[in-house]
């Protein structure tokens, strides 16, 4: 399916307007979650066509790549590989000079020590879950012999999510929420936790509802069916109306 510029303009209009609006990372995430990798390429082409300065294009390409990487732990690592590979192929085809710059990048995470990962992971996790932090960690720990909480703090948060140089904490928190919302089904509780977590990281009604509308619009346009039943499992979404 080919999506028009008008469709991407519609998606862009659903998110709060700003010079550095990250709406496109949330659109790309929804395509990634639903295995519509070719539409990640379409998203990049639209972003490039509406971004005049080459240096701004590079910033957005890095931000998009970082979002696909971070989303991989939430929607599936193989999808993360395919999404990042798809973006790189699109850049090579349409923006080789930009991909040449991105190919010079080294890992943002390779020099982190274990203690650094643990410290920044706990800090980021605590900002999301606030007063519920200990309970959430304890629940994960007892469900897994201690490994889920260990993995979450050191790897998911310390290594991956807490890196803020390309996708900041506010943007990352909203990404986590939207990844769970886009998945639907049994992860409604995680979606709920991350909606509140994204609010703790600075997202308000406009950002949360804008991200949801981007997801809903893509699902409707592509006829994607996501299980969000029973409705009472998702009734907490109304809380964002008051933010």
UniProtKB/TrEMBL annotation:
Name assigned to this protein: Carboxymuconolactone decarboxylase-like domain-containing protein
SUPFAM superfamilies: AhpD-like
InterPro entries: AhpD-like, PTS1_Protein
Superkingdom as given in the UniProt entry: Eukaryota
Organism for this UniProt entry: Zasmidium cellare ATCC 36951
